[in-house]
Structures are given as C-alpha cells and as structure tokens.
Amino acid sequence: MKQQFPDRLMQAVKAKDSRVCAGLDPRPELLPPDLSNTSDVVEATVRFCCGIIEAIAPYAVCVKPQAAFFEALAPDGLAAMWRVIEYAKQHGLLVILDAKRGDISSTAQAYARACFGLHNQASPAAAPDAVTVNPYMGADTIEPFLDVADSVQGGLFVLVKTSNPGSGDLQDLKTDCGHVYEKVSDMVCGWADQRTGECGYSSVGAVVGATYPEQLAELRCRMPRSILLVPGYGAQGSGARDVAAAFDADGLGAVVNSSRGIMYAYRQADQNWRQAAARAAGTMREDLNSVLH
Predict the structure, then answer these.
(1) Is 161 in the active site?
(2) pLDDT at residue number 39
(3) Catalytic residue among 100, 161, 174, 183
C-alpha cells in the first residue's frame, strides 16, 4: 500500500539529511548558452529541467515545478511539465506542483484532477506528490482538492503567509478573530488533524514565507501537524537562521525552497550549469543543517 504523503516526505528528509526543495521555474530567456541556441524552446526547457534534477538529486528531497512557466510554453508546455515531473520521480525526488489553484467547487474539482494527473496527458508515474492551493476564496474551494488528494495519498500545501512583499495587504488584516493569516492557519489545522500520517505530520501542509520570521515561528506553533513549505530562502533574501523556527526539535516538519538560487546558480559563477546547481543545492543543505544539528 502506498505511504501517505507526509510519511514519504519525512522519510526522504531523514534518508538524505536534507530539507532542500528545489524550485523549477524555467524561463526561456535564462536558458544556459548551450541550450539557448535552438528553435525548439520546449525541448530545451525539458533538457534544462532534467539536467537540474540529475544534478541536485543527491542533495534535495523534492522539486517544485511552477506550473505557470510550463503553461507559458503552450501548446506543448503542459506535456513538457509532465515529462519533467516523471523524470524527477525516476530520480527519487518527491514533486510538489506549484499551481496555487483555488476556485468554486466544480472548477476546483477539475483543477484538482488535472493537478494530480488524473487525465490522459499524464501517466501514473508523472503524478505529483502534492499541490499548492490558494484558500482565499474560502474553505469550500479547498474541499475538492482534499478529496482528490486523499484518493491518491497526495498532499496539499495551503497558502497561509506568503513570502512576497505585498502579502500583508490582505493576509495581515486584523479581524475580531486575529489576523487573516491566523484564521487561515486555523482552517489548515482542522484539515490537518483529520489526515495525520505515521510520522505525526499531516498531508495538509502550509506555505509560510521565510521573509517573515516572526510569523513563521508563530505559525509553526499554531499548525503543529502541518509540514511547512518555506519559500524566500536565498534570492529573496532569507538565510538559514531565518527559517530555523520552521522545524521541530528533531529538525523535521518543514522543507525550504530555493528556485533561482539553484536553477540559475550558473549565472553567479563561472561554472557549468549542472555543476553550479549541484554546488548550490549541496551548500544549501549544509547551511540549513548547520542551524539544526
């Protein structure tokens, strides 16, 4: 029987002693020189992503392909995305599809089935392990994702307190029940408590940005069963000490994402792009572990 998502993820964290999530945000204008001189941008993008996956597989536990960058390569971009997801899973990496979907229930059901690969485009081997979702239209927009995720032993990461500069415009507003992001975290807790794996963590996690370390520490306490997906490390300015509060006493309960800092590391160093990505992922693993061990 297939393990629940949190058990698969925490098992990978322990096996590799890593909390690294590598974001895959492929931009045609940033392809390495040896891949940019081609008319087939989609195939070059697949080769780039697969090369990054090979390079970082020893150091990362998961990858996070951003669906929008593949959708922008239409009409063949989605097929490319499924190829990349399948390649990552073949290399022992879990996959978090960064789709940030959220809509009325019937539309959300269609989104959920598509995101988890329940359609003809994706083979079962290409199904992501988890999907990011946006709850700010209300709890009813998340319920179809919960149903589909439950049916495939998958996970969700619900946006709670995001890393972007404007996140406070809505998420930090005060209500009679506290800040908006706190209310969302309470919703996440309710879903998480019903879906706990053997490791003690739930298949319903939360996205909490490293760029707001005080809220990160607060939300770690408010959502004790949720795995935190923490963006904002590296290119967005946060370091290992900023994310330390995301983890429990055993160094578990979170994965930290770096996209540009790994995928485009070659632009900051005179290195082969594969070697640069591997070094960036390895350095990130050591950096995170230095504040946890």
Answers:
(1) no
(2) 86
(3) 100
